[in-house]
Probable nicotinate-nucleotide adenylyltransferase
Amino acid sequence: MTRSMIGPAETEAATAPRIGMLGGTFDPVHLGHLRSAVELYEHLALDRLHMIPAPQPPLRGRPQVAAEARLSLLEAGIGDTPGLYADGRELKRAGPSYSADTLAELRAEYGDDARLVMALGEDAFSRLADWHDPERLFALAHIVVIARPGYPIAQTQRLGELIGQREVADASALMQTPHGGLLRVTLPSRMAISATEIRRRLQQGESVRYLLPEAVERAAVARQLYQTNDYPTDGCQA
Ligand code: ATP
Protein backbone atom coordinates (compact mmCIF):
# COMPACT_ATOMS: atom_id res chain seq x y z
CA MET A 1 0.00 0.00 0.00
CA THR A 2 1.37 3.43 -0.88
CA ARG A 3 1.36 6.24 1.66
CA SER A 4 -1.38 8.13 -0.22
CA MET A 5 -3.71 5.13 0.09
CA ILE A 6 -3.56 5.05 3.90
CA GLY A 7 -6.71 6.49 5.43
CA PRO A 8 -6.87 8.44 8.72
CA ALA A 9 -8.00 5.43 10.78
CA GLU A 10 -5.13 3.28 9.53
CA THR A 11 -2.63 6.06 10.22
CA GLU A 12 -3.90 6.25 13.80
CA ALA A 13 -3.65 2.47 14.13
CA ALA A 14 -0.04 2.61 12.99
CA THR A 15 0.98 5.22 15.55
CA ALA A 16 -1.17 4.27 18.56
CA PRO A 17 0.89 2.78 21.40
CA ARG A 18 0.92 -1.00 21.81
CA ILE A 19 0.77 -1.84 25.48
CA GLY A 20 0.72 -5.24 27.14
CA MET A 21 -0.15 -6.39 30.64
CA LEU A 22 0.90 -9.71 32.13
CA GLY A 23 -0.58 -10.05 35.59
CA GLY A 24 0.09 -12.86 38.00
CA THR A 25 0.98 -13.97 41.45
CA PHE A 26 4.69 -14.22 40.55
CA ASP A 27 5.30 -16.29 43.67
CA PRO A 28 8.12 -16.22 42.56
CA VAL A 29 8.68 -14.92 39.04
CA HIS A 30 10.41 -17.53 36.84
CA LEU A 31 11.80 -17.96 33.34
CA GLY A 32 8.44 -19.26 32.06
CA HIS A 33 7.02 -15.80 32.83
CA LEU A 34 10.03 -13.81 31.69
CA ARG A 35 10.85 -15.62 28.47
CA SER A 36 7.13 -15.55 27.53
CA ALA A 37 7.10 -11.83 28.27
CA VAL A 38 10.09 -11.12 26.02
CA GLU A 39 8.76 -13.25 23.17
CA LEU A 40 5.29 -11.72 23.45
CA TYR A 41 6.82 -8.23 23.46
CA GLU A 42 8.57 -9.03 20.20
CA HIS A 43 5.70 -10.99 18.61
CA LEU A 44 3.19 -8.16 19.14
CA ALA A 45 5.79 -5.38 18.60
CA LEU A 46 4.76 -3.87 21.92
CA ASP A 47 6.04 -0.55 23.18
CA ARG A 48 5.88 -1.73 26.77
CA LEU A 49 4.81 -4.81 28.72
CA HIS A 50 3.65 -4.17 32.27
CA MET A 51 4.22 -7.16 34.55
CA ILE A 52 1.86 -6.65 37.47
CA PRO A 53 1.85 -8.74 40.66
CA ALA A 54 -1.51 -9.19 42.35
CA PRO A 55 -1.48 -8.77 46.15
CA GLN A 56 -4.26 -11.34 46.50
CA PRO A 57 -5.53 -12.87 43.25
CA PRO A 58 -9.31 -13.37 43.72
CA LEU A 59 -9.51 -16.97 42.46
CA ARG A 60 -6.65 -18.64 44.31
CA GLY A 61 -5.24 -19.23 47.77
CA ARG A 62 -3.07 -16.80 49.64
CA PRO A 63 0.36 -16.36 48.02
CA GLN A 64 3.24 -17.72 50.06
CA VAL A 65 5.30 -14.55 50.04
CA ALA A 66 4.14 -10.98 50.74
CA ALA A 67 3.29 -8.83 47.71
CA GLU A 68 6.14 -6.34 48.30
CA ALA A 69 8.68 -9.16 48.29
CA ARG A 70 7.19 -10.67 45.11
CA LEU A 71 7.40 -7.26 43.43
CA SER A 72 11.01 -6.89 44.52
CA LEU A 73 11.89 -10.33 43.09
CA LEU A 74 10.12 -9.37 39.86
CA GLU A 75 12.22 -6.19 39.63
CA ALA A 76 15.36 -8.27 40.17
CA GLY A 77 14.24 -10.76 37.52
CA ILE A 78 13.46 -8.12 34.89
CA GLY A 79 16.69 -6.22 35.56
CA ASP A 80 17.41 -4.11 32.49
CA THR A 81 15.34 -6.16 30.02
CA PRO A 82 14.15 -3.71 27.35
CA GLY A 83 10.40 -3.14 27.26
CA LEU A 84 9.50 -5.06 30.41
CA TYR A 85 8.31 -3.09 33.41
CA ALA A 86 7.71 -4.33 36.96
CA ASP A 87 4.54 -2.45 37.81
CA GLY A 88 3.50 -2.33 41.47
CA ARG A 89 0.23 -0.45 40.93
CA GLU A 90 -2.03 -3.20 42.35
CA LEU A 91 -0.15 -3.04 45.66
CA LYS A 92 -1.36 0.52 46.09
CA ARG A 93 -5.02 -0.38 45.63
CA ALA A 94 -7.24 -1.54 48.46
CA GLY A 95 -9.47 -4.60 48.03
CA PRO A 96 -9.24 -7.52 45.60
CA SER A 97 -6.94 -7.26 42.57
CA TYR A 98 -9.40 -7.20 39.67
CA SER A 99 -7.66 -7.16 36.28
CA ALA A 100 -10.50 -5.09 34.78
CA ASP A 101 -9.68 -2.26 37.20
CA THR A 102 -6.00 -2.44 36.27
CA LEU A 103 -6.83 -2.40 32.55
CA ALA A 104 -9.10 0.61 33.12
CA GLU A 105 -6.16 2.45 34.70
CA LEU A 106 -3.86 1.56 31.78
CA ARG A 107 -6.55 2.58 29.29
CA ALA A 108 -6.88 5.97 31.01
CA GLU A 109 -3.10 6.45 30.95
CA TYR A 110 -2.44 5.42 27.35
CA GLY A 111 -5.64 6.73 25.74
CA ASP A 112 -8.56 5.36 23.74
CA ASP A 113 -6.51 4.57 20.62
CA ALA A 114 -3.87 2.47 22.38
CA ARG A 115 -3.79 -1.20 21.46
CA LEU A 116 -4.08 -2.66 24.92
CA VAL A 117 -3.40 -6.39 25.41
CA MET A 118 -3.96 -8.54 28.46
CA ALA A 119 -1.81 -11.67 28.18
CA LEU A 120 -2.31 -14.83 30.17
CA GLY A 121 -1.37 -18.48 30.06
CA GLU A 122 -3.73 -21.26 29.01
CA ASP A 123 -4.35 -22.33 32.61
CA ALA A 124 -5.54 -18.88 33.62
CA PHE A 125 -7.54 -18.49 30.41
CA SER A 126 -9.50 -21.69 31.14
CA ARG A 127 -11.05 -19.93 34.16
CA LEU A 128 -11.66 -16.57 32.47
CA ALA A 129 -15.47 -16.87 32.58
CA ASP A 130 -15.23 -16.99 36.40
CA TRP A 131 -13.31 -13.71 36.58
CA HIS A 132 -14.87 -10.52 37.85
CA ASP A 133 -16.83 -8.88 35.00
CA PRO A 134 -15.14 -10.79 32.15
CA GLU A 135 -17.03 -8.92 29.38
CA ARG A 136 -15.45 -5.70 30.66
CA LEU A 137 -12.00 -7.17 30.00
CA PHE A 138 -12.79 -7.27 26.28
CA ALA A 139 -14.29 -3.77 26.42
CA LEU A 140 -10.92 -2.54 27.65
CA ALA A 141 -8.33 -4.79 25.99
CA HIS A 142 -7.53 -7.63 23.65
CA ILE A 143 -6.81 -10.96 25.27
CA VAL A 144 -3.80 -13.00 24.18
CA VAL A 145 -3.57 -16.60 25.36
CA ILE A 146 -0.09 -18.08 25.64
CA ALA A 147 0.20 -21.84 25.08
CA ARG A 148 1.67 -23.45 28.19
CA PRO A 149 2.95 -27.04 28.19
CA GLY A 150 0.92 -29.31 30.45
CA TYR A 151 -2.12 -27.05 30.65
CA PRO A 152 -4.54 -27.87 27.82
CA ILE A 153 -7.48 -25.47 27.67
CA ALA A 154 -10.66 -26.85 29.20
CA GLN A 155 -13.19 -24.84 27.20
CA THR A 156 -16.50 -24.69 29.02
CA GLN A 157 -19.73 -23.50 27.44
CA ARG A 158 -19.49 -20.25 29.40
CA LEU A 159 -15.98 -19.63 28.12
CA GLY A 160 -17.13 -20.37 24.57
CA GLU A 161 -19.98 -17.87 24.92
CA LEU A 162 -17.61 -15.25 26.29
CA ILE A 163 -15.20 -15.69 23.38
CA GLY A 164 -17.98 -15.63 20.78
CA GLN A 165 -16.59 -14.48 17.43
CA ARG A 166 -13.69 -12.54 18.94
CA GLU A 167 -10.84 -14.81 17.85
CA VAL A 168 -8.50 -13.45 15.17
CA ALA A 169 -5.84 -15.24 13.15
CA ASP A 170 -2.70 -13.26 13.89
CA ALA A 171 -1.09 -10.31 15.63
CA SER A 172 -1.55 -7.86 12.77
CA ALA A 173 -5.31 -8.56 12.69
CA LEU A 174 -5.44 -8.05 16.45
CA MET A 175 -3.64 -4.72 16.25
CA GLN A 176 -6.16 -3.23 13.84
CA THR A 177 -8.36 -2.24 16.80
CA PRO A 178 -7.72 -1.01 20.37
CA HIS A 179 -9.55 -3.83 22.19
CA GLY A 180 -12.08 -6.66 21.92
CA GLY A 181 -10.10 -9.40 20.11
CA LEU A 182 -8.76 -12.77 21.16
CA LEU A 183 -5.51 -14.28 19.89
CA ARG A 184 -3.92 -17.61 20.81
CA VAL A 185 -0.14 -17.72 20.44
CA THR A 186 2.43 -20.46 20.66
CA LEU A 187 5.67 -18.70 21.50
CA PRO A 188 9.00 -20.22 20.41
CA SER A 189 10.32 -21.16 23.88
CA ARG A 190 7.37 -22.85 25.54
CA MET A 191 8.58 -23.69 29.03
CA ALA A 192 7.10 -26.20 31.45
CA ILE A 193 8.10 -24.15 34.49
CA SER A 194 5.71 -23.36 37.33
CA ALA A 195 6.05 -21.35 40.53
CA THR A 196 4.45 -24.26 42.42
CA GLU A 197 7.33 -26.55 41.44
CA ILE A 198 9.90 -23.86 42.29
CA ARG A 199 8.37 -23.34 45.75
CA ARG A 200 8.39 -27.11 46.31
CA ARG A 201 12.05 -27.34 45.29
CA LEU A 202 13.12 -24.45 47.51
CA GLN A 203 11.29 -25.98 50.47
CA GLN A 204 12.99 -29.33 49.85
CA GLY A 205 16.41 -27.73 49.36
CA GLU A 206 16.53 -28.90 45.72
CA SER A 207 18.14 -26.92 42.90
CA VAL A 208 16.15 -24.23 41.10
CA ARG A 209 19.07 -23.18 38.89
CA TYR A 210 17.95 -22.20 35.35
CA LEU A 211 14.27 -22.24 36.34
CA LEU A 212 14.45 -18.60 37.40
CA PRO A 213 16.93 -15.76 36.93
CA GLU A 214 20.01 -16.08 39.12
CA ALA A 215 19.28 -12.66 40.65
CA VAL A 216 15.89 -13.95 41.79
CA GLU A 217 17.38 -17.17 43.14
CA ARG A 218 20.05 -15.23 45.02
CA ALA A 219 17.53 -12.82 46.53
CA ALA A 220 15.14 -15.63 47.52
CA VAL A 221 17.90 -17.63 49.18
CA ALA A 222 19.53 -14.62 50.89
CA ARG A 223 16.20 -13.54 52.36
CA GLN A 224 15.21 -17.09 53.25
CA LEU A 225 12.03 -16.91 51.21
CA TYR A 226 10.14 -20.09 50.31
CA GLN A 227 12.01 -22.22 52.81
CA THR A 228 8.84 -23.18 54.65
CA ASN A 229 5.16 -23.31 53.83
CA ASP A 230 4.43 -20.45 56.18
CA TYR A 231 3.20 -17.04 55.07
CA PRO A 232 5.58 -14.36 56.41
CA THR A 233 4.01 -12.23 59.11
CA ASP A 234 6.93 -9.84 59.58
CA GLY A 235 6.49 -7.81 56.40
CA CYS A 236 9.26 -9.77 54.69
CA GLN A 237 10.89 -7.61 51.99
CA ALA A 238 12.95 -9.09 49.19
P1 ATP B 1 1.61 -21.23 40.39
O1 ATP B 1 2.38 -22.48 40.06
O2 ATP B 1 1.87 -20.70 41.76
O3 ATP B 1 0.15 -21.34 40.05
P2 ATP B 1 2.46 -19.95 37.93
O4 ATP B 1 3.78 -20.53 37.59
O5 ATP B 1 1.26 -20.45 37.17
O6 ATP B 1 2.21 -20.06 39.48
P3 ATP B 1 1.46 -17.24 37.95
O7 ATP B 1 2.11 -16.10 38.63
O8 ATP B 1 0.23 -17.78 38.50
O9 ATP B 1 2.59 -18.39 37.79
O10 ATP B 1 1.27 -16.89 36.41
C1 ATP B 1 1.05 -15.58 35.92
C2 ATP B 1 0.65 -15.69 34.47
O11 ATP B 1 1.74 -16.26 33.72
C3 ATP B 1 -0.56 -16.61 34.23
O12 ATP B 1 -1.33 -16.07 33.19
C4 ATP B 1 0.08 -17.92 33.84
O13 ATP B 1 -0.79 -18.70 33.02
C5 ATP B 1 1.29 -17.44 33.05
N1 ATP B 1 2.38 -18.40 33.11
C6 ATP B 1 2.96 -18.92 34.20
N2 ATP B 1 3.93 -19.77 33.87
C7 ATP B 1 3.98 -19.84 32.53
C8 ATP B 1 4.77 -20.56 31.58
N3 ATP B 1 5.70 -21.44 31.96
N4 ATP B 1 4.52 -20.35 30.26
C9 ATP B 1 3.54 -19.48 29.87
N5 ATP B 1 2.77 -18.77 30.71
C10 ATP B 1 2.97 -18.93 32.02
